[in-house]
Amino acid sequence: MINRKDQICALLKGIETGDPSSVTVVNQDKYIQHNPQTHEGGEGLAALFKRLSKSNPRVNIVRVFEDGDYIFAHTEYDFSSSNIGFEIFRFEGNQAVEHWDNIQPRLGPNPSGHTMIDGPVEATDLDKTEINQKIISSFVNEVLIREQLDDLKSYIDEHNYTEHNPRLSDNLSSLHESFSRFNREA
After folding, report:
1. How far apart are CA 48 and CA 35, in angstroms?
2. Do 10 and 97 fall into the same domain?
3. Number of domains into which the chain is organized
4. How many other C-beta atoms are found inside a 10 Å radius of the C-beta of residue 146?
5. What is the pTM of this model?
6. Can you tell me the distance from the alpha carbon of 16 to that of 78, in angstroms, rounded to the nearest whole number?
């Protein structure tokens, strides 16, 4: 069986080399690219990778996780400056058919001394995956969508909380204020 995580790692490392074979994981007929700066399909990625490889980029894949048909990669890109990326790929069979990303400049460490990429790189407690997914789904619905910010303490252990946002610290008041500010500005 083809290892999807390995395929995505090869794809992302293809940015360094410009090797067009790195994009064969992409189903060109179905691929939906949600990054407006990249063309649809494998051909768009091949052209992008070829162009990027000329600038001697570096790609550090910090962690990769798989959940069903989704692969998540946390990456550090060094093009002309250092950037941190979150990449999500959706698979059908052995090929990626959809991609989302969020890439931003590397900043930090934050006021608590944490970087955007430090922390564990392997998943543990896999037996808790299903319950954790339900907790996160509830958190997103209640806190982020319904804006029930006073419920943060129900979801986050204040004494064991580690924040990786370069502008926030390891306390719930910092997170609460950030969410409040975002809600006011929205």
Report:
1. 12
2. yes
3. 2
4. 10
5. 0.88
6. 10
We report the CATH number of the domain holding residue 12 as: 3.10.450.50
How far, in Å, CA of 160 to CA of 171, rounded?
9
Closest CA to 171 of 179, 162, 182: 162
Assign 176 to helix, strand or coil: helix
Q: Which of 79, 55, 59, 81 is nearest to 14 (CA)?
A: 59
pLDDT, one tens digit for every residue, the chain (186 residues): 679 999 999 999 999 998 889 999 999 889 998 887 776 666 677 888 888 888 889 999 999 999 999 999 999 999 888 999 999 999 999 999 999 999 999 999 999 999 999 999 999 999 999 999 999 999 999 999 999 999 999 999 999 999 999 999 999 999 999 988 877 776
Q: Could you give the C-alpha distances from 185 to 60, 100, 145, 179, 181, in angstroms and in order? A: 34, 24, 15, 10, 6
Domain containing residue 75 = 4-105
